[in-house]
Amino acid sequence: MVAGMKEGDEVSVYSDIEGKCKRGATEFDGTKVFIGNGISELSRSEIFCSQSPIKGKGIRMTDPVYLSPSFDNVLPGYIFLQNLPSAVVSHVLDPQPGERVLDMCAAPGGKTTHIATLMNDQGEVIAIEKIAKKVEKIKQNASVLKLHSIRTYCFNSTKAVTQGTSDHAEGAGPPFPPESFDRVLLDAPCSGMGQRPNMAGTLSLKELTSYQPLQRKLFSAAVSLLKPGGTLVYSTCTITLSENEEQVAWALKTFPCLQLQAQDPHIGGAGMAGAGLPPDQLKLLQRFDPSLAVLSDLRDGTCEDKDWTLLVNTDTIGFFIAKFVKNS
Questions:
Q1: Bridge partners of 34?
Q2: Which of 15, 182, 280, 301 could be joined to 99 by an S-S link, Cβ 3.0–4.6 Å?
């Protein structure tokens, strides 16, 4: 910030990428990115006064480069930031008020709290996570969003089904008796290959191939815990065939009671060939590919005889969603 800057001066704002600009500097030649132009609401001496610092808005942006909405007085408690596919998952699950829903691998709680919100906080959402610190994060997010239908447990979801015929007290935690839930979300632990790509990965081949057996253990527990007629949604934030379409093919073969269902909304692409699934089943799957834009057909309610095509910019992480129903 230049010396002598006064309230009302026009200024340009930059982001110090490497965090090397010292407080109160008048010049800086380090790595920076232009953010936009604005009007100073305070003088330089007021902003950098060390004896009695003034709190409040320093710069009122008039020409920002990034046209994102302001979150002033909104966060926290009203908005929970999510990637687009993560938000789509809860809508695909389609939880209803009064139902009992299980989120098997729930941390940090974005999908858990979204599910509870879609249920109008009416019913019961059971969130399971095996790492204690992550469980506390789920509880914190539920508390901030003032959701009371969520019950959180630190437990290994692969062991979430009771063995034998022992009684299970109402309101007790896991393990649960078979057929305890109307809907189950299995947002499975995965290799995370759909996250924003890096130039180099740290996963070894052994680590990369370790997820499929774990996902199948979790999937088996999910099927057992789901009521007949209930909905199971399986999702990952990875792009590998082995953790996505191959798992769907395995599930349909292993559990004849499961049937693939259409997804709403479906704004991603179809499933990827190579796992032996026929084209009609691949169309029921939903893949988000960061490198592609997806064409989705929409029908305009005012023109029943005309189909409109919406170009959806899927600038998202890589993601996969499959929806099943459990037949009686």
A1: 14
A2: 182
Cis peptide before 265, with omega less than 30 degrees from 0? yes
pLDDT of 68 over the 80 cut: no
CA distance 137 to 132: 9
Quick one: tokens of 85?
């596919």
Catalytic positions are: 237
CA 327 to chain centre: 28
> What's the average model confidence in pLDDT over 6-33?
90
Provide the pLDDT for residue 224: 97
CA distance 233 to 90: 9
> What is the C-alpha separation between 109 and 138, in angstroms, rounded?
5
The answer on pLDDT for 87 being more than 70 is yes
Instruction: Give the residue with greater pLDDT, 54 vs 227.
Output: 227
Interval 273-297 mean pLDDT: 82
d(C-alpha 173, C-alpha 325), whole Å: 25
Question: How far is the C-alpha of 327 from the C-alpha of 70, rounded, in Å?
Answer: 46
Residue 217 CB partners (closer than 8 Å, separation 6+): 158
Q: How far apart (Å, rounded) are the C-alpha atoms in residues 247 and 107?
A: 22
pLDDT tens column, 248-258: 999 999 999 99
Residue 179: CB atoms within 10 Å: 15
- Convert the pLDDT of each residue in 156-178 to its tens digit: 999 999 986 567 777 788 999 99
